[in-house]
């Protein structure tokens, strides 16, 4: 059985104020064309269909059009909600869509209800595990603890129990939206840390022939059977080196996996450039970036006059400009921002305690801080769920 694994469309998202809807439309054209050309048997969409819980109308229309086109091809599509999606909104009409071959899994209770497809080798059971917010789903799933590993293990246990009751030789596929150990994150993903820990071990999915992951935006192979497709478009400059693609997966008669990458269309390349203003304006090696979306970092000791406008004469698609002065006295605001870069809320809070008191927090105090951050985050998620 041939599967096309994709995720993290983030329909409605912009890139530094650049509207990406037309690029997302091109990607979906490419996806439909790939399904047709490669004779795909099922499409797997592993969450974050939309960029936010209440997406703009244009994004909803684009999604609707994509579903109609996939249904018209007669190719089943299995889709789960991600941490950016509103499960209830995305799941509206799920039972009706099922008749057209569009299978939405947006609730924990649906995790062990597979879409069963059949090829000449027998049945393939495809399970959809939507993004599981630990504090909200722990009781429903009967998980031991309110953390990602416990709730995903509980959901995977339900999958394994259902699979065990099926005829021998039934192959299995699961979609999940999570941060799995070994994955490499980037700047454009929303933090899902709970209890100071976000990652779950790949062993949670033991016994499943193929696991189609979503959440991380870089295409990655965690194990032969556990993979991220990544996002089809770049959503931050931290993705400058990523090759955007989907996985074309052939599932053999005994659960064997053969996977190859299908590249996605690139609306415009990304470039990160660094140097003094005069260097960036004159360096001939930067000519290849003149048509790219550009992030520039100026290293002039002091800020030059009108740097954005001057750089834009050479790089018309310049989107961001930052300063990292070299050879001048430290700017306290700049150095403070640098110290905070890539640090979690927990780390910043612990550093603040150490700075004010002179000693770092002990284990008990760290636990109190962790509990406080988790409580705030859980309350925010609960408030959002009520608003939905």
From TrEMBL:
Residues 1-218 form the Calcineurin-like phosphoesterase domain. Residues 267-355 form the Nuclease SbcCD subunit D C-terminal domain. It comes from Streptantibioticus parmotrematis. The gene is sbcD. GO terms for molecular function: exonuclease activity. CDD domains: MPP_Mre11_N (cd00840). Keywords: DNA recombination, DNA replication, Endonuclease, Exonuclease, Hydrolase, Nuclease. This is Nuclease SbcCD subunit D. SbcCD cleaves DNA hairpin structures. These structures can inhibit DNA replication and are intermediates in certain DNA recombination reactions. The complex acts as a 3'->5' double strand exonuclease that can open hairpins. It also has a 5' single-strand endonuclease activity.
């Amino acid at each position: 059985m041939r599967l096309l694994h994709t995720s993290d469309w983030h329909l409605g998202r912009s890139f530094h104020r650049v509207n990406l809807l037309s690029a997302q439309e091109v990607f979906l054209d490419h996806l439909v064309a790939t399904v047709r050309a490669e004779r795909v048997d099922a499409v797997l969409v592993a969450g974050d269909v939309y960029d936010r819980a209440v997406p703009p109308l244009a994004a909803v229309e684009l999604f609707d059009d994509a579903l109609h086109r996939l249904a018209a091809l007669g190719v089943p599509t299995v889709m789960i909600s991600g941490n950016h999606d509103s499960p209830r909104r995305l799941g509206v009409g799920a039972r009706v869509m099922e008749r057209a071959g569009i299978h939405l899994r947006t609730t924990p209770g649906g995790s062990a209800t597979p879409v069963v497809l059949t090829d000449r080798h027998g049945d393939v059971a495809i399970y959809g595990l939507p993004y599981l917010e630990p504090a909200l789903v722990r009781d429903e799933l009967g998980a031991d603890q309110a953390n990602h590993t416990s709730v995903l293990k509980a959901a995977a246990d339900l999958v394994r129990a259902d699979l065990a009751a099926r005829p021998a030789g039934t192959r299995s596929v699961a979609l999940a939206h999570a941060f799995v150990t070994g994955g490499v994150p980037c700047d454009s993903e929303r933090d899902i840390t709970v209890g100071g820990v976000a990652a779950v071990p790949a062993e949670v999915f033991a016994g499943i022939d193929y696991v189609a992951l979503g959440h991380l935006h870089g295409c990655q192979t965690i194990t032969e059977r556990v993979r991220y497709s990544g996002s089809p478009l770049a959503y931050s400059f931290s993705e400058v080196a990523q090759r955007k693609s989907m996985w074309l997966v052939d599932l053999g008669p005994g659960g064997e996996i053969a996977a190859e990458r299908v590249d996605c269309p690139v609306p415009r390349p990304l470039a990160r450039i660094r140097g003094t203003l005069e260097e960036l304006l004159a360096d001939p090696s930067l000519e290849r970036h003149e048509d790219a979306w550009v992030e520039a970092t100026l290293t002039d000791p002091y800020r030059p006059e009108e740097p954005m406008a001057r750089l834009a004469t050479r790089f018309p698609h310049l989107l961001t400009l930052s300063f990292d002065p070299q050879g001048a006295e430290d700017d306290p605001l700049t150095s403070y921002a640098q110290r905070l870069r890539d640090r979690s809320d927990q780390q910043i809070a612990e550093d603040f305690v150490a700075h004010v008191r002179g000693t770092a927090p002990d284990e008990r105090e760290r636990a109190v801080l962790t509990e406080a951050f988790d409580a705030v985050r859980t309350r925010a998620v609960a408030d959002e769920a009520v608003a939905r």
